[in-house]
Write a structure and sequence with these properties.
With about 190 residues, this protein is α/β, with parallel strands linked by helices. It is built from 6 helices and 6 strands, in the order H-E-E-H-H-E-H-E-H-E-E-H. The chain has one domain. Strands 1-2-3-4-5-6 form a 6-stranded mixed sheet, with helices on both faces.
Length: about 190
């Protein structure tokens, strides 16, 4: 979970609802993510004894197979949005946000007092990446991004693998099981 008020403000400005998980290291990047949590799916996994993340690619491929829908545990988490907020270079943040566009909406939170060039603005606009900047006591939206994943990307086993990792992170970071009950986001 995150205790950084800028991250919480950024997620609020973007309208991303869910659990804010900071310092997510996946796929060679470090980001913050807003993750939705399906309480019914979690309850089903608890009932079936599958309430731990599964990271085996072959197993996840079976779980994602359309013909097997309903036969295997459902996904408990989904990525609402990815916020690239690590690293001092704006280009690094743009690159990270672009890598996640195939999974969900993405945004960058500009580092304080860093220049944001016209080329970087165009890169973000072209890629559908939202841009936010810290301001005095709040976060300002400089550019709207695409609210969903890239239209050309489709769900794959990689989505489920990321979701399973996030499921494990949420379970590990919760102070108590009550934090996973409805109404306990961020």
């Amino acid at each position: 979970m995150s205790t950084d008020p800028q991250l919480t403000m950024a997620a609020d400005v973007l309208g991303w609802q869910g659990h804010l998980v900071s310092d997510v290291t996946l796929l060679g990047t470090v980001t913050s993510m807003v993750v939705s949590f399906d309480h019914q799916a979690h309850a089903r996994r608890l009932e079936t004894g599958a309430a731990q993340p599964v990271l085996d690619a072959d197993t996840l491929a079976m779980w994602e197979w359309p013909q097997a829908q309903g036969d295997f545990p459902p996904s408990v988490t989904s990525v609402v949005g990815v916020l690239a907020n690590h690293g001092q270079a704006v280009t690094a943040r743009v690159s990270t946000a672009r890598k996640w566009r195939g999974f969900s909406a993405s945004a960058i939170l500009l580092p304080a007092r860093k220049a944001f060039s016209r080329q970087q603005q165009l890169e973000c606009a072209y890629s559908g990446i939202a841009v936010l900047a810290p301001a005095r006591g709040h976060v300002e939206l400089l550019h709207h991004g695409n609210p969903d994943r890239l239209p050309s990307s489709r769900r794959s086993v990689a989505d489920r693998w990321v979701e399973e990792h996030l499921y494990g992170m949420l379970l590990a970071r919760m102070e108590s099981a009550d934090a996973l009950l409805p109404g306990h986001g961020r």
